[in-house]
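Question (not urgent): is this output format expected?
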Amino acid sequence: MFKQKSLHILLGGALCLAASTISAQIAVKSGDKIVFMGDTVTRMGNGRAGFLNLVMSALEANGVKAVKIPAGGSGHKSNQMLERTERDVIRNAPQIMVLSCGMCDVQHGKRGVSLEDYKKNMTQIVDRVLAAGIKVYILTATMITENPNHPDNQKLAAYNDFLRTLAKEKSCTLVDVNAGMQKQLADIRTKYPDIKGNLLTQNGIVMNPLGNIMMAEGILRAFGMTEEQLAKAQPAWNKMSLPQDVYMSLGEYKALSEKAFQAKQSVPDYLKSMVKKDLQ
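Got this back:
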C-alpha cells in the first residue's frame, strides 16, 4: 500500500512538473494584455481569421486567456505610431507590445519616412514602451508586393536590417516575418513553378488567410510556443469562418446564379456546396 501511494505521488509530481514546464515555455500568461501596434497589415489582421485573432485563439487552446488590444492604423507610418504610443500602448498598461512598422514608411514614397527618421522614430517608440515595463516583440516589416526584387522590397531591406539591430541592442524579441514570408513564397513557387498571382496576400500588401497563418505562427513561436502547442490550435483555427472574394463578370454571375437556382440554392450556398464537394 505504501509503495503504491508513493508511486502515485511520484507520478502526480512528474505530471505537474511536465505541465508547468510546458506552460513556462509560453511567455504570455492568462490575464496578460497584448497590444498589437501596427499599420494597415495589423489593422486588417484584426479581421475574423486575421493573425491577431489566430494568435489569441492559439493561446486559449493552450490554456492561456490573454486580452487583445488592437492598435493597427490604416496607412500608418513610424511617425504616426510614435505620436500615439502613449495613448494606444502605455496608457493601456499591457504586459506585451507586438510592433509591426515599416511597410508604409517605404511604400508611401515621397510621403513616406526616410531611413534615418525611421530609425529615430522606432528607437523612441521602443525606448518609451520598455521604460514603462512592457515587453516588446519587434516584427520585421512584411513585403511590399510578393516580388522580392521589387524596388520597394529592395529599399525595405535596410529598414528591416535596422529592426534586427534594434531588437538586439534593446534586448527585444525579433519576429522575422519578412524572412518567413519570403521563404514560404519561394517554397510555394518551387513546388508549383507555373503558379501566378498573389499567394500570401490579397493585394500584395494585406495578408490573405495563408499570410495571416504565417504571421500568427511567427509571433506564437516568438512567444515560446512549441510545434506541439501550435498543433493544439489547429482545430479551433480550422473552424474559423472567413469571407473569400471571387471576382467574376456579370455574365458569369448570371450563369452561376442559374445553376444555383436549378439546384434550389442561393448563389452563396451553391458556392459553399461546390467547394465542399471539390474538397471531399
